[in-house]
């Protein structure tokens, strides 16, 4: 056998033997878990999780503002993405009718207040007239008492023939006149009382109309204020689905009104 053939056979045997050794090692280690070793120390653990979801702020940091009245948007002062402050004016809707109602009611209130002032003055005047009538009645009663006393003394004197017929007749006439004056004064007091009661009634009714007019004015102003929309909190306009000139409608029963804008505080999500 030639020398090169011997070398080739020996090399093949070595390669085969090495393959068998490696294969045996791999076969013996099947199912074995590899272990990483390292130095123990304090460190942060990091983990990445992939999932589907929606990122948004907590409910108390998000506010949807809906329409409170019918009307066309006449003023839009922000755009989506703007940062706003609580109370900042953001939007207006038309308020022609609401403004007219407020103006008319303010005029009605002023009229009612003027009527109240007049009726108050009338009540005070009637009270003064009643006092005067009562004073006149008291004076008439005093004069009647005096005339009656004079008449009673005159009767006795005339009976004793100590005064003339003419003097007695005068005393009788004075007594009759004093009695008539008392009746007249009593009638004036009754009339004055009726006038005072009527004046007080008119005054109280006028005051009630003023209160009613004020309540109506508060209602009309509230309706007008509902055409003005401000930011309910600090945050960013995260949704603005309306535009200038668009008509919006308020909610009815359980149906919410048109959504005007959304303000979100994104410091916490």
What would you say about this model in short?
The protein is an alpha+beta fold and 269 residues long. It contains three helices and eight strands, in the order H-E-E-E-E-H-H-E-E-E-E. The two termini are 86 Å apart.
SSE layout:
Blueprint: H1 3-28, E1 62-66, E2 71-76, E3 83-84, E4 89-93, H2 96-159, H3 165-225, E5 228-230, E6 235-239, E7 247-248, E8 259-264
Antiparallel strand pairs: 1-8, 2-4, 2-7, 3-6, 4-5, 6-8
Helix pairs in contact: 2-3
How is this structure best described in words?
The protein has helices spanning 3-28, 96-159, 165-225, and strands at residues 62-66, 71-76, 83-84, 89-93, 228-230, 235-239, 247-248, 259-264. It is rod-shaped and about 205 Å long. The strands form 2 sheets. Strands 1-8-6-3 form a 4-stranded antiparallel sheet, with no helix packed on it. A 4-stranded antiparallel sheet has the order 5-4-2-7, with no helix packed on it. It has 3 helices and 8 strands, in the order αββββααββββ. The two termini are 86 Å apart. Helix 2 packs antiparallel against helix 3. Helices cover 56% and strands 13% of the residues. The mean pLDDT is 87. The protein folds into 2 domains: 56-94 and 227-269, Beta Barrel (OB fold (Dihydrolipoamide Acetyltransferase, E2P)); 96-224, Helix hairpin bin (Helix Hairpins, Orthogonal Bundle). The protein has 269 residues and is an alpha+beta fold.
């Amino acid at each position: 056998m030639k020398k090169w053939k011997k070398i080739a056979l020996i090399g093949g045997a070595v390669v085969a033997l090495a393959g068998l050794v490696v294969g045996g090692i791999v076969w013996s280690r099947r199912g074995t878990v590899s272990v990483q070793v390292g130095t123990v120390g304090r460190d942060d653990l990091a983990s990445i999780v992939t999932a589907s979801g929606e990122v948004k702020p907590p409910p108390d940091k998000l506010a949807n503002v809906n329409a409170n009245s019918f009307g066309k948007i006449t003023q839009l002062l922000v755009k989506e993405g703007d940062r706003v402050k609580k109370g900042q004016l953001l939007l207006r809707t038309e308020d022609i009718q609401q403004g007219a109602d407020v103006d008319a009611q303010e005029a009605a209130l002023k009229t009612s207040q003027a009527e109240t002032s007049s009726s108050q003055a009338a009540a005070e005047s009637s009270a003064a007239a009643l006092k005067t009538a009562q004073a006149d009645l008291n004076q008439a009663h005093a004069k009647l008492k005096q005339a009656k006393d004079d008449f009673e003394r005159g009767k006795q004197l005339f009976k004793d023939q100590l005064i003339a017929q003419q003097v007695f007749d005068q005393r009788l006439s004075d007594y009759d006149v004093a009695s008539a004056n008392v009746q007249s004064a009593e009638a004036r007091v009754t009339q004055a009382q009726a006038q005072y009661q009527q004046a007080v009634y008119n005054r109280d009714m006028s005051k009630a109309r003023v209160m009613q007019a004020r309540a109506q004015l508060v209602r009309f102003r509230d309706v007008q204020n509902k055409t003005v929309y401000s930011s309910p909190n600090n945050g960013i306009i995260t949704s603005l689905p309306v535009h200038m000139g668009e008509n919006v409608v308020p909610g009815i029963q359980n149906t919410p009104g048109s959504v005007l804008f959304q303000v979100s505080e994104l410091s916490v999500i």
